[in-house]
């Protein structure tokens, strides 16, 4: 076990190393991205300033970043499929490779004309996701471009929409929740047909008479670290204190207020409060009293990092506290531990 203070020291060292290699990248799509599929349906236009994806009955399309990033603040402006976009999904996310991959997701689920898009978010760490939160937006995302940002630093992941934080996922490794911090990730985006589940759970199908569907991207901007790159590309633009402030970025009071406003008024699904697993847990605990076993299952469901193969810890954090902490930004102070 590493003590808290040495973990902290390690973090400080990491941060120092990272800031030395942080780069600011401004966005020509032809320089920063590769079109990966879609057979001509994805296009880079206006001298690299604009990228469009399209979807028809035969295929969708997609692109990915040339670089991999390990921590960063990444902004992209998107204008989503207008009109009847039911059944379509525009995904914009960071992901590493392999079965134990990490991933930070924005997914935009289309809807019938006049009905709201759903913005679906998720965080995978070590191959484990199931951390969905969904939102409606306070504007029409098809009428104009809006900025969707991912802040990813060693302490937290924050999802922003036009600078308003909508979700925060904290590093809670100290209580056994795994956190993406070792695997570099690429940016990916795609537009595809998901009418088997996307709109009202698959009830509303894609209306192909509206095809081709199209989404647009512009103003890509990243302050990020690019690991394993020749020092020239990493240190040529070595970080000044302002360009690396994202490394310590957290929600200030004003952002906290905005954040609460979104969570209160626009969040439509939160895995943390999904009652299915909780009802199951309470019921079975009451019925047969297999407390430890049930607790492990719940920890596994809501926290990651704890699996049944692990030796049962002697002391456990109550699942309600763990959930609140992972989900509602409870402070780490004042943790209670129970002896089982
Ligand atoms: C579509 O619109 C309906 C009705 O307003 C809403 O309940 C739903 O969340 C919207 N989004 C999706 C993806 O179904
Ligand atoms: C933020 O809020 C806390 C407590 O609510 C307060 O102590 C602190 O002074 C505030 N900071 C700013 C910059 O307003």
UniProtKB/TrEMBL annotation:
Catalyzes xyloglucan endohydrolysis (XEH) and/or endotransglycosylation (XET). Cleaves and religates xyloglucan polymers, an essential constituent of the primary cell wall, and thereby participates in cell wall construction of growing tissues. It comes from Anisodus acutangulus. GO terms for molecular function: hydrolase activity, hydrolyzing O-glycosyl compounds; xyloglucan:xyloglucosyl transferase activity. PANTHER family: XYLOGLUCAN ENDOTRANSGLUCOSYLASE/HYDROLASE PROTEIN 8-RELATED. Glycans are attached at residue 111. GO terms for cellular component: apoplast. It holds the Pfam family Glyco_hydro_16. It is an enzyme of class 2 (transferase). This is Xyloglucan endotransglucosylase/hydrolase. Belongs to the glycosyl hydrolase 16 family. XTH group 1 subfamily. The active site is at 103 (nucleophile), 107 (proton donor). It is found in: Secreted, Cell wall; Secreted, Extracellular space, Apoplast. GO terms for biological process: cell wall biogenesis; cell wall organization; xyloglucan metabolic process. Residues 23-217 form the GH16 domain.
């Amino acid at each position: 076990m590493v003590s808290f203070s040495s973990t902290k020291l390690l973090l400080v060292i990491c941060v120092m190393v990272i800031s030395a290699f942080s780069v600011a990248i401004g966005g020509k799509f032809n320089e920063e991205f590769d079109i990966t599929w879609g057979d001509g349906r994805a296009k880079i236009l206006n001298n690299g300033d604009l990228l469009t994806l399209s979807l028809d009955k035969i295929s969708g399309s997609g692109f990915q970043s040339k670089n991999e990033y390990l921590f960063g603040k990444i902004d992209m402006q998107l204008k989503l499929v207008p009109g009847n976009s039911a059944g379509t999904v525009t995904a914009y996310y960071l992901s590493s490779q392999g079965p134990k991959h990490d991933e930070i997701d924005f997914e935009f689920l289309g809807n019938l004309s006049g009905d709201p898009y759903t913005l679906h978010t998720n965080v995978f760490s070590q191959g484990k996701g199931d951390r969905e939160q969904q939102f409606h937006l306070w504007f029409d995302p098809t009428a104009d471009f809006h900025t969707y940002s991912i802040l990813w630093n060693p302490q937290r992941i924050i999802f922003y929409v036009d600078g308003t934080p909508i979700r925060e996922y904290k590093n809670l490794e100290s209580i056994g929740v795994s956190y993406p911090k070792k695997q570099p990730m690429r940016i990916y985006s795609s537009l595809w047909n998901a009418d088997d589940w996307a709109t009202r759970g698959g009830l509303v199908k894609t209306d192909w008479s509206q095809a081709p569907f199209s989404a647009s991207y512009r103003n890509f901007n990243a302050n990020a670290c690019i690991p394993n790159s020749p020092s020239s590309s990493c240190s040529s633009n070595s970080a000044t204190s302002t360009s690396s402030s994202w490394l310590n970025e957290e929600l200030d009071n004003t952002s906290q207020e905005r954040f609460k406003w979104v969570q209160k008024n626009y969040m439509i699904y939160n895995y943390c409060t999904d009652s299915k697993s909780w009802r199951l847990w309470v019921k079975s605990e009451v019925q047969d009293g297999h407390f430890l076993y049930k607790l492990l299952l719940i920890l596994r469901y809501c926290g990651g990092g704890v699996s049944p193969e692990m030796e049962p810890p002697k002391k456990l954090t109550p699942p309600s506290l763990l959930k609140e902490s992972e989900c509602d930004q409870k402070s780490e102070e004042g943790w209670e531990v129970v002896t089982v």
